[in-house]
Design goal:
Blueprint lengths: L2 H52 L2 H5 L1 H5 L7 H17 L8 H18 L19 H71 L4 H49 L14 E7 L4 E4 L12 E5 L13 E8 L4 E8 L10 E3 L10 E5 L14 H11 L3 E3 L8 E4 L11 H6 L3 H24 L4 E3 H8 L2 H4 L4
Parallel strand pairs: 7-8, 7-9, 9-10
Antiparallel strand pairs: 1-2, 1-6, 2-5, 3-4, 3-6, 4-5
Amino acid sequence: MAVGRQDQSSTMLYTAIVFVGLFIIAAVVAVVFYIKAEDWRTQYMTSQQNFEQVASSSDVANISNLVGQKSDDSRVRQLLGYIDNFYTMQTGAMPSETTAEAKMLELQSKHKDVMSAAPKDFGVVMEANDVNGPGIFRIVELYNNKLALANKNIEQLNSQIATLNSDLDASKQGAADREQELLTQVGKLQEDANSVQRSYNQLRDLMSQKADEQMAALIAQREEAINERNKSRQELLEAMSKLTITQNRLEDALSRLDVLKPRPKQDVAAYKPDGSVISVDIQSNIVFIDIGADSKVYPGLTFAVYDRSAPIPTEGTSKGEIEIFDVAKNTATARITQQSKRNPVAEGDTIINLIWDSTATNTFVIAGEFDFNGNGTIDRDGAEKVQQLVENWGGKTEEAVTIDTDYVVLGTEPQILKKPTLSDIETDPLANDKYEASVKASERYQEVKTQAKDLYIPVFSLKRFLNFTGYESLAAKTK
């Protein structure tokens, strides 16, 4: 064999051996890669299934919209953090290291406990699958605590009110007893004063007739009587001082009672309806009311008319006024003397007259100066006109305020005149009498005002008085 052919055969043999070796290596590598690929594919499918249990592909695509902005933690850890925050917001406490399911079950249990503890009148209704239910139990629990505290405070206040009422009753009784005692002492002092005056008169008569010795004895008797009167006056002043202290204590107790439980209005009787309008004749301005002769209604009686559907104003301003001119057994006919154009007298309206009462006689005390017809000038006989109106409508008047007084009517306070000089008296001999009369009128005004306040008697101004009697429009027509 030639050398060249031998070399060529060796090269081809080597090439074949290398090719076979590379083929074997490639086959082995392919088998190994296939096996590894199958393992990776299995791991991928398992991971995909596990991942889909955490979030679907659509959830992953919308993860930012569902969870929020990405934080340093994983999305699952971020959601668990939100659940923990929700738990803390609802309960006010940090959750324990448990599963999210356990935390939600605990919240549901607390929600049921709080709802079952809420009072039935609390207005909280727990319904199944209420999406708002778990978010309110903390507020309900807070208000339950506040309700318990409020009930405790109410019990304490009721106890304080009962104590103050007891103190008030005792103070009133003590004041009444003291007033009666002082009246008795005043009567006794008046008798003593009269006795002293009689003794003085006797002394004056005897002084012109008897000797110096008798005069000295009588003077001694007079001084003894004066000393006795001064002693009685001192006792009266001490009693008045004690009465003032009692009244101050009473005022203090009433002020404390007003803070806890306000007293009813003193003039509540003024708002009591006397009757009502049963029909109205618009063309003739005539109304018919549901009280008549059996209720002691008579022609000339006036009433203020108030809206049936509104509370009576404090100042007594009415929507109209009527005057009776015909009376039947149980009804009466009246003409409308004044009414509001926007709100005329209508069926069902209430009528009131402060003075008139079908079952009782109201007692009034009148003090001050009055402009009866409202022309801007004080009427010389204004007080007499008010008194006449009270007596015409079945009431009666007294000079002094007592516990039996029903109402006090106060005008403007009388002005005290300037004290006259000798020249003034020479010009007007009655100047001093007028001055003393003005002083007495002012003192009486203040006394009536103070007594009404001390005895809690309702006080009416002239305008309010006329409003509640339905006589304001007619009073303006008087001269």
